[in-house]
Amino acid sequence: MRIASFILTAAAIGALAGCGSSTPSQPNPSPTPIVSPTPTPTATPTGIVLPPGMVCDPTPPPLYGFKVGVHDYDPVSGRTILDSKPLVPNVNDYCSRTHQGSGKFCATRLEGDPQATACDYLMTGIAPSTGRWGPTWTFNGKPCGTVATDETFTSCANHQHNQFMAIGKVSGHFEACASPEVPVSPGQGRCGAYNLK
Fold first, then answer.
1. Cβ distance 82 to 68 under 8 Å?
2. Whole-angstrom distance between the N-terminal and C-terminal Cα of the chain?
3. Which residue has the higher pLDDT, 90 or 43?
4. What is d(CA 162, CA 121) in angstroms, rounded to the nearest whole number?
């Protein structure tokens, strides 16, 4: 009888000790999700703000001009696709620092360089006629038509996918020009030209 009484008393004390713990049970808090910050636009020494996440370092010297030429020709439709490439002077050994030799001028970056698009954007700005990054195109001194989505234009239109290109249908004087915000090297212009024959 004493043994049974002792066992019951011990069990009751154990139960009370478990119920009267001084630290109340807390639910496990769920971890706070980590939010990646949205990339902010990159300000550059030229004053042009690149789209978020784009980088051009080292920054090219002020614009030397544009190289404009024929990218492709379709004899069936008579359409000539013109292409433009911004060029910069070899200031502070920029061309060799971007692996382009030691000439008087060079491209902003080599083709295929991961920063090539961003650096080209810095040297062209945004074309007001289309709101896209790239040069403004003119034909015989007049703005090229809007983006070419059909065959209705008669002389010149902006390329449907790439503002660095234009489409010409007739012979004449084509120019690709950087926006006014782009700095230009002393004695140089902000345009490049091609006479389509």
1. yes
2. 120
3. 90
4. 12
